[in-house]
């Protein structure tokens, strides 16, 4: 190789590395429906050379890997990571999902006198969930509305399911076989739990005031303080807003792609789609939710809750404001 060829090779390599380095990297759990707008945004609004890289994970990855720029996750996990990584920031709400809880009405009450039909009837019963997740917090919060503390029932841990027949140790399987009397979790596992029992043998509870998942887009202070990276993040959010409008108003356009991404059939998606709110923004009560929920996370993680003033640092509205201003300018 001549010196000229060598220099040319280094130049090409530098260009390739620069091309890769300017691509956003996004971390999210790739098996949840809520992450799909991130995938569609990446595919539909970026060229092959600039398309963001999406890796499996969530906020736990963005706080431990400096190559990751954005992350999708529920607010429970953001609170868990913020306790030790105070540079984490919430930028935008991708989906809000009031979880549901299903009970097997043919199970007997604790005294064995009648079939269960209410949340209060779950006293002494076995309630399925997934530990240290938004589902676990939902179950505890919902049952508190019926006067049940977390020691008044047995929490039984099971797994997710995306398509029937659900396998051993998944929550729908356990409900159908009487291993649990009820369970609460995100979709589509909950819907498959309903379908796992005969018609008329289930009752479903949902209370947005008790809990709704607030699945957000996150970054870090370090990324946002970098002018070039911040510009890329604002650009991505602009396109994400456009995609969420499709998810909200014309979901039939993205059913097939969502089905392919998370292995959930279109008929199931059609049943559960409206459980999800894709309208975006940042909820006006977000800080209130974080403050109350952090008490639970702190107890589970064995730490003191963060103050309201500290939790304010977790929310960054400036990226949303910049993206909305740019969208408005483009439309005018």
From TrEMBL:
<dbReference type="InterPro" id="IPR015168">
    <property type="entry name" value="SsuA/THI5"/>
</dbReference>
<feature type="signal peptide">
    <location>
        <begin position="1"/>
        <end position="22"/>
    </location>
</feature>
<dbReference type="Pfam" id="PF09084">
    <property type="entry name" value="NMT1"/>
</dbReference>
<keyword id="KW-0732">Signal</keyword>
<protein>
    <recommendedName>
        <fullName>SsuA/THI5-like domain-containing protein</fullName>
    </recommendedName>
</protein>
<feature type="domain" description="SsuA/THI5-like">
    <location>
        <begin position="103"/>
        <end position="160"/>
    </location>
</feature>
């Amino acid at each position: 190789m001549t010196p000229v060829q060598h220099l040319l090779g280094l130049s090409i390599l530098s260009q390739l590395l620069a091309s890769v380095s300017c691509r956003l990297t996004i971390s999210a759990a790739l098996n949840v429906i809520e992450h799909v707008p991130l995938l569609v945004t990446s595919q539909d609004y970026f060229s092959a050379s600039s398309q963001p890289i999406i890796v499996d994970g969530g906020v736990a990855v963005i706080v431990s890997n400096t190559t990751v720029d954005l992350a999708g996750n529920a607010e429970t996990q953001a609170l868990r990571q913020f306790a030790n990584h105070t540079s984490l920031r919430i930028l935008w709400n991708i989906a809000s999902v009031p979880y549901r809880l299903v009970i097997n009405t043919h199970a007997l009450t604790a005294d064995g006198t009648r079939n269960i039909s209410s949340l209060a009837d779950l006293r002494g019963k076995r309630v399925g969930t997934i530990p240290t997740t938004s589902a676990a917090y939902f179950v505890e919060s919902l049952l508190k509305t019926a006067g049940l503390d977390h020691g008044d029932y047995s929490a039984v841990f099971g797994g997710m399911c995306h398509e029937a027949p659900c396998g051993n140790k998944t929550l729908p399987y356990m409900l159908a076989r009487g291993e649990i009397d009820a369970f609460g979790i995100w979709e589509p596992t909950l819907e498959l739990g309903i379908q796992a029992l005969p018609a008329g043998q289930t009752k479903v509870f949902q209370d947005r005031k008790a809990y709704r998942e607030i699945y957000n887009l996150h970054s870090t202070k370090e990324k946002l303080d970098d002018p070039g990276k911040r510009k890329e993040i604002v650009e991505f959010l602009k396109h994400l807003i456009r995609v969420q409008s499709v998810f909200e108003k014309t979901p039939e356009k993205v059913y097939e792609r969502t089905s392919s991404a998370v292995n959930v059939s279109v008929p199931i998606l059609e049943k559960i789609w409206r459980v999800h709110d894709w309208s975006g923004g940042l909820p006006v009560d977000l800080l209130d939710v974080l403050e109350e929920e952090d008490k639970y996370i702190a107890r589970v993680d064995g730490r003191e809750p963060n103050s309201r003033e500290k939790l304010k640092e977790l929310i960054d509205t400036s990226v949303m404001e910049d993206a909305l201003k740019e969208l408005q300018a483009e439309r005018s």
